[in-house]
Amino acid sequence: MKRGKNSMAHKLAFIGFGVVGQGLAEILQDKRESLKNEEGFEAKVVAISDFRKGSLYHPQGLDLEAVLETVQTTGSLDGYPNTDGLITGWDSLQTITQSNADTIVEVSYTDVQTGQPAIDHCRAAFESGKNVVMTNKGPVALAYQELSALAHKHQVSWGFEGTVMSGTPALRMPKLALAGNDITEIRGILNGTTNFMLMRMDEGESYGAALKEAQSLGYAEADPTSDVEGLDARYKIVILAQHVMGMPLSVEAVECTGISQMTPELIEQARAEGKRWKLIATAKKEHGVIAAKVSAEKVPLDDPLASVSGALNAITYETDLLGPVTLCGAGAGKTETGFSLLIDLLTIAKARETVRS
Ligand SMILES: NC(=O)C1=CN([C@@H]2O[C@H](COP(=O)(O)OP(=O)(O)OC[C@H]3O[C@@H](n4cnc5c(N)ncnc54)[C@H](OP(=O)(O)O)[C@@H]3O)[C@@H](O)[C@H]2O)C=CC1
Ligand SMILES: N[C@@H](CC=O)C(=O)O
């Protein structure tokens, strides 16, 4: 269905411009016309602030094609054409508070210990009346209550679909399409890097080579310890418990082991038993109490999770009205995670359109 033109372009500022940031930028560039014609959505990237690649701000908008060409050929934003009105050198907080962006795209590293500086990025954005869309898991796992309340107080939106299962709607689907159900248990494969590594190891590749390959494909965290020790999956199960099950859960309360002890012998042993290793995250609600854990499990081959391969993820929601509902799709990747930010942006745009009409 064609939608009416939205006269006001959404002004975006990116904090971080690595794999995922560039993934969204490419989608906005490649789908500019169809997003405008089919969704009535227009976006203007006014600022990008990255730790080492540099930073750019132009209140009238940056030339996205030139930005991508510059960063992808030189690894830096420094060679971007110096046009009239261009400001360079702003750090993340200056970009958030001083740019004319209405939405901040927070795609900096996930810090699994403190969630910072991304928590402060969200606080600064909300207090400046700006929406945030993000794939950074730290703020959602560690400061969900505080930041939800702050966004609400300042009447701005906070989108974080990509924090769990990349662009696969692991948060939106249960919140919208399963509304009215009591979700009593969530069980799934929530980390693409380790699932990819386990597949490659099952095919005979070494642990180190499998990790390198996952890194080169853009699946791994900047510090892949988060992936292989299960910390990334732990953050995701905490996000699911809080946002989908409505149960407060701290990261420390989730027992967690990863796959760093996995050996060819263990893989062989599982195969001999007709099983396959998977890193499984579970959250179960019983008598108003939630228990959650992340661990490598030997899954029988007839379990649907056994056939989830590569960077795919899958999740089963146990519901009271519908029984088990399983969602399977991308769990990591440049375009896949870039899409998660796009769907958050489209949701904000549609809400804005509804308010205006
Ligand atoms: N890759 C994926 O498939 C997925 C990633 N995510 C999450 O999305 C986020 C981005 O991931 P990804 O793009 O892969 O990671 P990258 O490491 O490729 O990119 C992160 C970027 O953020 C920059 N950065 C770090 N800290 C700051 C800061 N304080 N201010 C400005 N820039 C900063 C880094 O700068 P520099 O390197 O120049 O120092 C880097 O360019 C992470 O939080 C990750 O957990 C979520 C789902 C899937
Ligand atoms: N490193 C993460 C990226 C997405 O959250 C993963 O491998 O799943």
From TrEMBL:
Pathway: Amino-acid biosynthesis; L-threonine biosynthesis; L-threonine from L-aspartate: step 3/5; Amino-acid biosynthesis; L-methionine biosynthesis via de novo pathway; L-homoserine from L-aspartate: step 3/3
Any one Gene Ontology BP term: threonine biosynthetic process
Residue stretches making up the Glutamate/phenylalanine/leucine/valine/L-tryptophan dehydrogenase C-terminal domain: 10-84
Keyword Amino-acid biosynthesis: yes
Residues involved in NADP(+) binding: 16-21
Superkingdom of the source species: Bacteria
Matches recorded under InterPro entries: Glu/Leu/Phe/Val/Trp_DH_C, HDH_cat, HDH_CS, HDH_short, NAD(P)-bd_dom_sf
EC number: 1.1.1.3
Reaction(s) this enzyme catalyzes, per UniProt: L-homoserine + NADP(+) = L-aspartate 4-semialdehyde + NADPH + H(+)
Enzyme class, broadest EC rank: oxidoreductase
Chain residues that bind NADPH: 137
Keywords linked to the UniProt accession: Amino-acid biosynthesis, Methionine biosynthesis, NADP, Oxidoreductase, Sodium, Threonine biosynthesis
Location of the Homoserine dehydrogenase catalytic domain: 169-346
GO function term, MF aspect, one: homoserine dehydrogenase activity
Binding site for L-homoserine: 221
Coiled-coil intervals, chain numbering: none
Residues the record marks as active site: 236 (proton donor)
Family: Belongs to the homoserine dehydrogenase family.
NCBIfam families: PRK06270.1, PRK06349.1
Protein name: Homoserine dehydrogenase
